[in-house]
Specification:
This protein has a single domain, classed as Porin, CATH 2.40.160. The two termini are 29 Å apart. The protein is elongated and about 60 Å long. It has 209 residues and is mainly beta. The strands form two sheets. An eight-stranded antiparallel β-barrel has the order 1-4-5-7-8-10-11-14. Strands 9-12-13 form a three-stranded antiparallel β-sheet, with no helix packed on it. The protein is 11% helix and 59% strand. Strand 7 and strand 8 form a beta hairpin. It contains three helices and 14 strands.
């Protein structure tokens, strides 16, 4: 249902930008994304931490023109991370892997006017969907499955698109999501805010139409 709502927002953006698109084309981009999770969460007074491993995953975005210098971007990144409990930098228990899906809606500024070299910066929000973490180690520790709450957060991006032809371009992009979801251990009911704060470094093949 949440994904359907996001699709409806994307559709409204497309309709709103249709007239402007006659002067500046829509842009569809397929991304390959390396994600670094910069946060760490201390779980107890001994210094045990929750860490999230980096990963490489796909994404997709649609950029809708709002004027000569502005656009709105709706995007989805299909991230995945393996979580771990660590002590003094060493892994002591696996949390298993979970899918993390940020759905971003950003307003972007294109100071060069969307030319052959098109640098941009943007800011907006993300609504992130989560799977649960589950592993044999969590069961052994009596923690059980760890559920994460879907959450809204701030997001920002910066990048540059290089035109390879009138329609096709190569885009380099970096973005940040201030992601700190609440989690609940199913077996114990213990709640903990997890500090993820991912940085996404992406290379995209973009099509303007």
């Amino acid at each position: 249902m949440r994904t359907v709502r996001f699709a409806l927002v994307l559709g409204l953006l497309a309709v709103a930008g249709a007239a402007e698109a006659q002067r500046a084309p829509f842009q569809l981009t397929a991304w390959g994304t390396y994600t670094h999770f910069s946060g760490s969460t201390v779980t107890d007074s001994f210094g045990t931490q929750v860490a999230f491993r980096d990963s490489f995953r796909p994404g997709v975005s649609l950029d809708v023109p709002l004027g000569h210098l502005l656009s709105a971007e709706a995007s989805a990144f299909f991230l995945q991370s393996r979580g771990a409990l660590t002590f003094r930098g060493q892994e002591i228990a696996s949390l298993g892997s979970a899918t993390i899906t940020p759905l971003l809606l950003l307003v972007q500024l294109h100071p060069a006017g969307r030319g052959a070299v098109d640098p941009y910066v943007g800011a907006g929000g993300a609504y992130t969907l989560f799977d649960s973490f589950a592993s044999a180690d969590l069961d052994t520790l009596g923690i059980g499955r760890v559920s994460l709450e879907d959450t809204f957060s701030f997001a920002a991006c910066a990048g540059v698109r290089f035109a390879l032809s009138d329609a096709v371009g190569l885009t380099l992009d970096g973005r940040y999501v201030h992601l700190r979801p609440d989690s609940t251990a199913d077996a114990t009911g213990v709640k903990l805010e997890l500090d993820m704060r991912p940085f996404l470094a992406s290379v995209g093949l973009s099509l303007r139409f």
